[in-house]
Design a protein that fits this description.
It contains twelve helices and 26 strands. 19% of the residues lie in helices and 24% in strands. Strands 1-13-11-5-7-9-10-4-12 form a nine-stranded mixed beta sheet. A nine-stranded mixed beta sheet has the order 14-26-24-18-20-22-23-17-25, covered by helices on one side.
Length: 481
């Protein structure tokens, strides 16, 4: 197996810390941004044979990352940020010993004190995490008037000397357990944002905020997050995790691998499964002229674009997206390049053809593998086309026979994904969804693109959002080879 595949197997042995809040209706967040709303039963099992929700979500709801265009017109949007940019070594500054207060900034002397205590120092390419302990005020279920909103309206911060210090260290990103990685404020009275405006975004240092539960994670390790590839995005919600690398050096191993982006751009009316609501983007939910910053709002189905299904998508009593471990879709992959069999619309690839690929590429499914089926069907992915026939062609692609479905299920794989809208038998017969994959704890992923250049084996990274009761989640997966 490849080096990347072995790195993936090593990664699966390490402890993971989920630092994302639960994405739910009216969750606490920055007071000037639209709040998240979830339409809970956009499709239901009784009438539609499957369950899905629609999210009306700001690019800055929940745990999220800002892109340079958020503050400065003409700068990079989130879909222009390099693939894998937010996967790398982190250093956590535990500032709780200073009892941070709203409206007060942490000083450079306090930062240096933490560095001496924990034997850390920022280096080029690091991802810096600021732990104020502010998530103790994250109270999404409080019934006390205005208590839920206090968390975001009042925050500690860092002074400009600290911002300049991290900028000069050439860090890659900076995140915190507050709603802002910038100067402190109270009662939502934000006088200035020098971090975003002067020190961070202009230097391609991406600010991240809205994290929780960082206290248990070690001081150093591997940070992993993958923003959604939103067209012209000012930022993106993310599912960040911290990995205790246990001195394995896996951070450098991953940085030595080549990333392959297999996500389409998320844009209004992008092609997808014909029966799902299509994605809509409100392009000027906030504008530079009226608000001092730019931001979009997405009206997005949990199954738009590249995405994963949760078990709850078809089976009402099985776990939803919020009950599935954060690192479930991080692990070793094996890619089945089926293009030489010239897959056709409405035709299933047979088990015999699957085994032919295995013999050719020296692969075989093993327990916990992530299996990728490359039909080459993304050649029919034409978001710019106005021809309805093009959309239908993409929506009704090839599949695999039930015998092949059973073969992969018996191998106890972790997940299966494809460059079609259904990684199963050709629609409407879907035994993978109904009988063999989801009921046996195997997640189904769909609508990938550009898998061709990636090697046959390697590391798969998918980090779906932690959506309350989610039937699935959009995500922008990466292959490392």
């Amino acid at each position: 197996m490849s080096k990347a595949y072995e790195v993936a197997k090593l990664l699966k042995t390490l402890d993971v810390y989920d630092i994302s809040p639960l994405f739910e209706t009216n969750m606490p967040g920055f007071s000037l941004d639209p709040q998240l709303g979830i339409v809970p039963v956009a499709k239901n099992i009784e009438q539609d044979n499957y369950f899905t929700q629609i999210l009306v979500i700001s690019e800055h709801n929940g745990s999220h990352v800002d892109a340079p265009v958020h503050i400065r017109q003409g700068e990079k949007s989130i879909d222009q940020i390099p693939c894998g940019y937010l996967i790398g070594p982190y250093k956590k500054y535990d500032l709780t010993c200073f009892n941070p207060e709203a409206g007060k900034n942490i000083t450079i002397d306090q930062i240096k004190e933490v560095e001496a205590r924990d034997n850390i120092q920022p280096q080029a390419g690091d991802i810096i995490l600021l732990q104020y302990g502010w998530d103790k005020y994250y109270l999404p279920y409080s019934k006390k008037l205005f208590e839920k909103d206090w968390y975001a309206a009042n925050v500690p911060g860092i002074n400009e000397e600290v911002m300049q210090y991290f900028r000069d260290a050439e860090i890659r990103a900076i995140g915190s357990d507050t709603v802002s990685t910038d100067a402190a404020y109270t009662e939502s009275k934000i006088m200035s944002m020098p971090g975003k405006e002067k020190y961070f975004l202009p230097n391609n240092i991406l600010p991240m905020s809205g994290f929780i539960n960082m206290s248990k994670a070690p001081v150093t390790g591997l940070f992993m997050a993958v923003p959604l590839k939103i067209k012209n995005g000012s930022g993106s919600p993310i599912r960040p995790i911290l990995v205790d690398t246990k001195n394995t050096g896996i951070e450098k191993m991953i940085q030595g691998l080549k990333p392959y982006d297999i996500s389409p751009v998320f844009e209004t009316n992008m092609p997808g499964f014909y029966n799902h609501p299509t994605l809509g983007i409100v392009p000027d939910a906030r504008t530079y002229e009226k608000h001092g910053y730019y931001m979009q709002t997405l009206v997005i189905c949990e199954h738009n674009g590249s995405h994963t299904d949760s078990f709850k998508h078809i089976h009402a009593n099985m776990p939803g997206m919020d009950e599935i471990p954060a690192d479930f879709l991080i692990g070793p992959y094996k890619k089945y390049d089926l293009t030489k069999h010239q897959p056709q619309r409405g035709t299933n690839i047979t088990l015999e053809q699957i085994k032919e690929v295995e013999a050719r590429d020296n692969i075989k499914p093993e327990a916990n593998d992530i299996i990728l089926l490359q039909f080459g069907w993304d050649r029919y992915y034409k978001p710019e086309s106005n021809d309805p026939e093009d959309r239908l062609m993409y929506s009704f692609g090839p599949g695999i026979t039930e015998e092949a479905v059973i073969y992969f299920a018996k191998a106890k794989i972790q997940a299966i994904g494809a460059d079609v809208v259904s990684a199963d038998c050709c629609f409407p017969n879907m035994p993978g969804h109904q009988k063999h994959f989801l009921p046996n704890g195997i997640l189904i992923m769909e609508s990938f693109v550009n898998m061709g250049p990636a090697p046959a084996t390697g590391l798969f990274v998918g980090l779906p959002w932690k959506i309350k009761g989610g039937s699935g989640s959009p995500m922008s997966p990466i292959l490392f080879g």
